[in-house]
Amino acid sequence: MLYTNATIVTLDPTRRILTNGALRILNDTIAAIDKTAVLKSQFPDEEEYDLTGRIVLPGLISTHMHTAQTLLRGTADDLELVSWLCERIWVLQGNFTAEDGYAAARLSIAEMLKSGTTCFLESMFADRYGFDGLCRAVEESGIRGCLGKIVMDIATYAKDEAWAMHPGLVEDRETSLLGTVKMWEKWNGKANDRIRVWFGARTPGGVSDNLYREMTQISRERNIPITMHCAEVKADRAFFSSVNHTPMTYCSSVGLLSPSTVLVHMVHLDDNDIALLSKSGTHVAHCPTSNAKLASGICRVPDLQKAGVNVGIGTDGAPCNNTCDLLQEMKLAAIIHKSISYDPTAVPAESVLEMATINGAKALGLQDSIGSLEVGKKADFVAIDARGIAMQPWFNPVSAVVYTATGRDVDVVVVDGKMVVERGELLTMDEREIVQEAQRRSQEVIERAGLTGKVQPRWRVE
């Protein structure tokens, strides 16, 4: 198949942009990239798909996502963090069934695909949500998923009794750590290697030092990557201080700093933390909307980048973002650092697009197969329709994507060489059925949790 007549932002090592460009896809791989006229002359009998007026870029990669939480979109808006987590989100999640988890995963994946995300890192999927269902949802939908199953053995947050987990979410070593290994043995590499299984460790304070060390040893022995929330809120920093550490000295002490680890949020770091990150090759997932909405603070992304730390980007979960649209996340990532630094050149559009593509691929250990459009790499790409009034005019395709486009402008999505979205419509999933199931199950979860009276508008509804 030839995809022709597009503006192609390759993200290859030279960062070249092709006008009137074309891609030749053979099975699941990019076989050629060149001007449309060149490829049409070389392959005159090839089937052609016209992408005139579209901007083509590598499939977007979200390095932090909670698929279960999309079923809880809008259930905990404008609450301070303890109430948000302990009185709403954990209570709701503690009343999930495996069927709810599958419905939530399908809703999340459908939204991600329609808004251009072709690969995501699930951070902390609980056992009660049904990990098999998450894997099935990835397999059926055509998306690429790195799936972190929760690892924990302590049921509080940062050793504060006020931050107690709902009993329905509490897991032990056997269920969490050993359960993840079992799921890795069952699912890792399945669906033509679109499924990878990760350790999704709870935040320090939720995992004992011994369990962290056991997990990191297994990670090294079996090559199972790790993702973990870290230094997100001031309470995290206080926890590390209580055990005579900073965030990164603690992570180093239990073996977490590694090129196979993605640490999420990373808001409350000092200069030495950043130096340790850089030296270790550990990756960071930046989630600006979540950090802003929950009033957690702002990650020191410009300082991390200057130190050579690889930074990806993620939407986090729907209750602290309200969307899985990575294009919207990219815009905030490009803007928020300018605001606090008083420097309009801080984190430019090109840097943000790298975060959402090739940097994300590096964080997931997949840079040799995805993250850029190069011959021999997997055919994962997105075509954004730049012909509409809201996108016109544009002069730099990168700034048009980062500052103007949203998920609603996504026209075509291809993963592993297979078209999964065409003209903005899902081809691999029944969108109407997914929405109806999500609506029904979200209401049932709220009722089981006993929160019907709280999850409603603040203003009177007549």
Automatic annotation (TrEMBL):
Protein name, per record: Amidohydrolase-related domain-containing protein
Database matches in InterPro entries: Amidohydro-rel, Metal-dep_hydrolase_composite, Metal_Hydrolase, MTA/SAH_deaminase
UniProt keyword annotation of Hydrolase present: yes
Record key words, sorted: Hydrolase
The organism's place on the tree of life at top rank: Eukaryota
Segments forming domain Amidohydrolase-related: 55-420
Cleaved signal peptide residues: none
Organism: Aspergillus lucknowensis
